[in-house]
C-alpha cells in the first residue's frame, strides 16, 4: 500500500493553518453555544466542541481525499488554484463552489449532530441503569418521559444548528477578509 508513497513536493501550509484557525474558531463558538443553550458546564461544553469538531474535520478530510481523485480535470485545476493562489479562473466554478458550500454545511451539521448525540449517550453514566428511586412505571409516566426526551432531542438539534451556523458565519467572514 505504501510502496509508491512519497512526501509531497509542495505543502499547502496556508490551507493547513487556516483549517487550524477555523477549527479553533468553531470550537470556541460552539462551546459557548453548548454552555449557554444546553446548560453544560464549561469543561463539558469545551470537551464536546473539541471532540465533534476534530472528528468532523477528520471525516471531512477523508471524504475530500476520497472524492478528489474522481473529480474532472478542470475542477481539480480550479481546486488547486483556489487552495494555493486563492483565486478562481473560470466564472462557472463559482456556482459549483456555492453549491458545495451548502452541501458541506449541511453535511457537517449532520455529522456533528450525530457525533454529539453519540458522545452525549456514551458519556452519560445514567443511560441504561435503573436506579432504586425510580417511580413505578405507568403509561402516564412513560408518555411524559417520552415527551421530555423528544424535547431534549429537539433542543439538541436546534442548538447544534445554531452553533454550526454561527461558526460557519464566522469562518465566512474570515474568508471574506482574506480575499481583500
Concise account of the structure shown:
With 180 residues, this protein is an all-alpha fold.
What does this 3D model show about the protein?
- It contains five helices and no strands.
- With 180 residues, it is an all-alpha fold.
- Helix 2 packs across helix 4.
- It starts with 12 loop residues before the first helix and ends with a helix.
Strand content: under 5%
User: Gap between N and C termini, in Å?
Assistant: 43 Å
The backbone outline, from C-alpha atoms, is elongated
Which percent range fits the helix content?
A: over 70%
Give me the strand/helix succession: HHHHH
Which secondary-structure class do the elements indicate? mainly alpha
Total beta strands: 0
Annotation keywords:
180 residues, mainly alpha
How is this fold's topology laid out?
Blueprint (H helix, E strand, L loop, with lengths): L12 H25 L4 H26 L5 H13 L7 H31 L15 H41 L1
Amino acid at each position: 500500500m505504501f510502496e509508491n508513497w512519497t512526501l509531497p513536493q509542495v505543502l499547502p501550509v496556508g490551507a493547513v493553518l487556516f483549517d487550524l484557525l477555523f477549527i479553533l474558531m468553531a470550537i470556541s463558538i460552539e462551546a459557548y453555544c453548548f454552555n449557554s443553550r444546553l446548560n453544560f458546564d464549561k469543561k463539558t461544553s469545551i470537551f464536546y466542541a473539541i471532540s465533534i469538531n476534530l472528528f468532523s474535520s477528520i471525516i471531512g478530510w477523508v471524504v475530500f481525499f476520497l472524492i478528489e481523485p474522481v473529480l474532472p480535470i478542470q475542477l481539480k485545476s480550479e481546486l488547486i488554484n483556489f487552495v494555493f493562489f486563492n483565486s478562481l479562473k473560470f466564472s462557472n466554478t463559482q456556482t459549483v463552489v456555492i453549491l458545495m458550500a451548502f452541501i458541506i454545511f449541511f453535511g457537517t451539521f449532520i455529522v456533528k449532530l450525530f457525533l454529539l448525540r453519540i458522545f452525549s449517550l456514551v458519556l452519560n453514566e445514567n443511560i441504561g441503569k435503573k436506579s432504586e428511586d425510580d417511580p413505578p412505571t405507568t403509561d402516564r409516566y412513560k408518555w411524559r418521559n417520552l415527551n421530555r426526551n423528544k424535547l431534549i432531542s429537539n433542543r439538541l438539534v436546534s442548538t447544534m444548528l445554531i452553533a454550526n451556523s454561527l461558526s460557519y458565519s464566522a469562518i465566512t467572514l474570515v474568508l471574506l477578509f482574506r480575499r481583500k
